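Minutes, project check-in
Item: structure for the 241-residue chain
Input as provided by the requester:
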Amino acid sequence: VMSNARNIVVDKNVVTYNADRRDNGSDYGIVLYGGNAITVSNNQIAYTGSEGIHSEAAISGATAYTISGNWIHHLGDGTVVGPAVVGTPAGMILGDSGGGGGNGDYTGSFVENNLVENLVSNNPNRAGPKGIILENDSNNWVIRNNVVSNLPGECIKLDATRRTVNNSEIYNNLLMGCGKGNVGAGNGAGIVFLSADSTKSVNNNKVYNNTIVNNFGGAISSACSGPCTGNIFRNNLMYDS
């Protein structure tokens, strides 16, 4: 856990078997709280109860993180961590917890060259784990050159349930085999846009040059009760079963 840290590099570590009590949801691999100029690179994160990487933005100013070259796999796998480990095993949740605390400005932040695969959920009452989630208040990211594969939930989700997910670029990613066992209403799509009401927005995001194949909830799905405007989808290859 890094809180308000600056100029830190976390490189070439193995983080495994982190488990919390049932449904607590804080058994992460690596956590970034309000720091800046932090690089998380070339780590292996596996067999945790909740997300491999969790971030929250600083209170003021831009929060710049580089998350690159990490291999995140088999989170939430009850055959290894045991059936009582029930958390939120997404590959990455990047935003602000509950929509408060930080200002959601991730200008200068990159998620690139990561492999997120083979995620599992022990909780039948919780939606299947996603690959990469921009959540609550999470803006101005660049997400590029990642592979997200073989998991129950969406490959990438822009989730403005509480505030905004605007102005990010998502390109050159391979998104495949998401949504197994979680078909319906956009669940398990390659990319999902979600805004909860008129005060929440998923605006001005650019999605281009991605390959989105064999996802069980479709290639791109929107569930927008609030603004979803100014988004651009260009030059994507989409093929689904």
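Outcome recorded: The CA atoms of residues 62 and 105 lie 5 Å apart.
No further action items on this chain.
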